[in-house]
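Posted in: Protein Modeling Q&A

I'm a second-year student putting together a small comparison for a lab meeting, and my supervisor asked me to include a predicted structure for Ancillary SecYEG translocon subunit. I've never done this before, so apologies if this is the wrong subforum. The sequence is pasted below exactly as I got it from our records. If anyone can share the structure token output, I'd also love a short note on what stands out.
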Amino acid sequence: METYMTEEERLEALQRWWKDHRRALLGGVLLGLAVVAGWNMWQSNRQATAEQASALYQQLLKATAEQQTESAQKLGERIVEKYPSTLYAHYARLFLARAKVTAGDLQGARQVLEEELAKSDDDGLKHIVRLRLASVLLGQGEIDPALRLVEPFAAPASGKFAPLYEELKGDLLAAAKRPAEALKAYQKAKELGNASPLLELKLSDLPAAAGP
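Accepted answer (user: helix_wrangler)
Welcome! Here is the predicted structure, written out as tokens:
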């Protein structure tokens, strides 16, 4: 019985067990060390990537603030290309689209915003992207596609963004020569809390066009 084994017998049994199982044990230890090392390296690389993306993003903000359009475009493109999986890439596309609009490249801005709308999984960010994309479509004269983009998000579907959707809807309807409908959209935007002076100007300009 094992209970009555002598110390020498126990030592011999342990040596036999070690001989039979040492390779598996060593393999398990080495695998565990490799996993830990790999995890630490991944964490370190992830932090380094975030820091590099953050540094470029700060440069992008500065270039945008200083109206350095060409520099802002290059920085935005670099962030999106090198750090596509970071949050900075999502916001970089917004600034990149803005830089392209400033440079008169509406088609380029449209492509960037369409890409971001397809990639983002943040509802709030998607509302911002959608509104900007519809504005770019308006600038291109693509009224019907822009209306199809914003109409499903009229109040109350879009929450706090509803006043902005309604105002933009009014802009699109006004551009489509549908002043009576545009007036309703502007009034709805005002009812939802949009009190901007620009909206008031739009409202005051519409009645004559919306009359009989």
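A couple of things worth pointing out for your meeting: The radius of gyration is 30 Å. The first helix runs from residue 7 to 65.
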